[in-house]
Amino acid sequence: MRRLINDGYDAVEEMLEGYTKAHPEYVHLDPNDGRVIVSNMLSEEPRVRIILGGGTGHEPLFLGYVGKDFGDAAVAGNVNTSPSPEPCYNAVKAVDSGKGCLYLYGNYAGDVMNFDMGAEMAAEDGIRVETVTVKDDIYSSKNFEDRRGVAGDIIVFKVAAAAAAKGLDLDAVKEAAEKANRNTYSMGVALSSATLPVTGTEIFHMEEGEMEIGMGIHGEPGIERTKLKPADEVVDELLGHILDEAQFEEGAEVQILVNGLGGLPLMDQYICYRRVDEVLNEKGLKIHRSMVGNYATSMDMIGMSVTVVKLDDELKELLDAPCDTPYWKIK
Amino acid sequence: MRRLINDGYDAVEEMLEGYTKAHPEYVHLDPNDGRVIVSNMLSEEPRVRIILGGGTGHEPLFLGYVGKDFGDAAVAGNVNTSPSPEPCYNAVKAVDSGKGCLYLYGNYAGDVMNFDMGAEMAAEDGIRVETVTVKDDIYSSKNFEDRRGVAGDIIVFKVAAAAAAKGLDLDAVKEAAEKANRNTYSMGVALSSATLPVTGTEIFHMEEGEMEIGMGIHGEPGIERTKLKPADEVVDELLGHILDEAQFEEGAEVQILVNGLGGLPLMDQYICYRRVDEVLNEKGLKIHRSMVGNYATSMDMIGMSVTVVKLDDELKELLDAPCDTPYWKIK
To answer: Which residues of A60-99 are buried (b: 16+ CB within 10 A; e: fewer)?
Structure first.
């Protein structure tokens, strides 16, 4: 194991303690539930509240996007494991201001089950909670509804949060998030597994010099395991799938996220971005904004994903709207 | 090799191209010198200009801190290699506004030689260039003057840039940077080597389950190579050395940086931060601001460093001053 942790069973609690102590201006732990991270910058006026969440091990996802005009709370499960229903419910109790809440998380069965139970518990208190599950990983299924959520999570979260910050009602905030969801296309490549803190071992094993395109962030199978190819070929393959799926029109405006999965140097991520920019320009697309870095990781997994978001005026306005969190700030 | 690059000889140029394309609002490449990254947000009024630099492979150092009220330019060498004198000089030509420039970089012999030659070339044009080399790695030498610069680089850079943004003259900006330098203490631990892009091989080899406290970011030797210890023990050892060296008075105010070296998950960095916070509070220090993340890396090296900065009112004001760059934003 090449991890700097204490007892693996304490890793999540210790991380949450460290996170909230490091960023006291942004967040605190809910005194009633140590798995709920609550914003210190909740709007004074009542608003639809944005609740993010899922398993841990994907930092800065989800807690890193709690702050001002973005996530109002995040719910943290164990590593690669859905949070249980109680913290999902407790997050609602901690932040609801009478306008209802929107749960936003990647589309994984365990998360769906437990967040749905949290929503039912809230309904018993008369609080309306709606849900949008992010489904941006185009390789995970041919059917949109069955797709998993990966780095595109943060695009959908940002759009929803900006819609809530505008004062839109729950139906309208949900609609904006769903629109972002339908227009967000991601695909990734892995060169290694992450290391699980409790066991100190890999989830799966890849030899040095191998890669797997289409692999999920928990090691879900991709297309095939091949010899590591040059960055430009990998990007071309990822973009090929995304462009086939998305069928952008020439002149379309897009936002790009080249997302590191944890162990890939920024140098490599910018080398990959260079090729993304080149190819999309050749295709006649107009890049409105680009993001490069470790926005949604799988701990120490070496790999990256490319996300392309098709924009219209509404999505552009919401993605460009000001926000302030430790891991995404727009003035 | 577990890197996503093309030809290793092209890695630096391709990264710089990707970086400037991804962040066109912040920077551009100097049309006269492809190794000089220039801010698009230079102040309109003449000011002392801040020029950062050094070898590449430490991203987001140095180029990631070029923007508004921070670095005005960065000079990029090859991986782990000083830039040559010409780009050091060309950076001055690109940004000088008549008030002189300050070179800021980590204290390495090659950088000192080449930046000094750049300053001499600028002097021939009548432009005054002064230098502060950062020396925060307390284990690298008993003598302050011989110490290397590691993650504390960014603290000294920030202080100098904020002093320049206040309109101070070159002597005063240099003095502020030197004060930050004397009050910045870092020490790190490595669990693996970085991978060099040109050879595709490690710089040195560490077995899984080993660690080396005090190791430099290019693999400079540390105290001894031992079995990997729990995070809290590693932090205690790093802080022990820092506290011995710094001799902070009880009640002193400090700023903390827990810096990931590239391959260490954020989860682990926050677990380490938790212990830093705990120990410093026990010692009666007051933590003014904390930063956690990959601020100065060694590509894919697994490891981290702890930096403690002793503050006074002046340093606090300069470190808190607004700035806007891709990798450090303060409102």
So the answer is: bbbbbbbbbbbbbbbbbbbbbbbbbbbbbbbbbbbbbeeb
